[in-house]
Amino acid sequence: MKLNKLVVAVAAMFAVGSVAYAQNAEYKKGDLVVNALYSIGSFDGDGVDGFAQHAFGVTAEYGILDDMIHGKGAIGVGGEVGFGFGSKDYDGIELKATRFHLATRGTMHYCFVPALDTYAGFRVGIADWNKYKTEVPMLGTVESKESEFIYNFIAGARYMVSDSFGFNAETAFWGRYSHLSLGVTFKF
Question: For the whole model, what pTM was predicted?
């Protein structure tokens, strides 16, 4: 049900953006792009599958190479930081979790449509701290903290409505964390 709402929100975002005068979204060497994102995703861990989390994050990428394929395409590198939270009823016990992540990312951009910057790449987490807090009957509060390596394939698109502002949709998959993010883009 929530996924359907997200799909409708993405479609509405692109429809509203297409009414405005769309700009050339081609990503080039020297471009700096910053995204502010809201994500809904899942975390699979320690036997708890499909643990839904909401998250907020910021990504930044800098174009280091361009004209990769027939005078188009670019490679960008950058980083991201995010904070997520959620809870799940697990065998009658409410499991609460918060997480903070810091990652590097590398992407290949190719503009198939003039106003749409499409990209795919890989992110590698420098650190990801998880905290689980649970109230267990007769034991009280049980907490668990861990740090781990994260990695994901990422794919997304940016729809630019001006030279410096647009909308972004991105998904990350593979690994313990997967998500769908929606947000705004600032291009410098």
Answer: 0.75
For residue 137, what are the CA distances in angstroms to 93, 140, 142? 8, 6, 10
- Between strands 48-69 and 72-90, the pairing is antiparallel
Q: Where are the beta strands (DSSP E) in 32-115?
A: 32-45, 48-69, 72-90, 93-113
Name every residue whose Cβ is closer than 8 Å to that of residue 56 and which is 6 or more positions away in sequence. Answer: 37, 38, 39, 82, 83, 84
Tokens of 99: 């997480």
Bridge partners for 60 per DSSP: 34, 79
Q: Which residues contact 177 (CB under 8 A, 6 or more apart)?
A: 41, 42, 43, 101, 128, 150, 152
Reported as a single tens digit per residue, the pLDDT across 90-129 is: 677 777 777 788 999 999 999 888 778 999 999 998 766 6
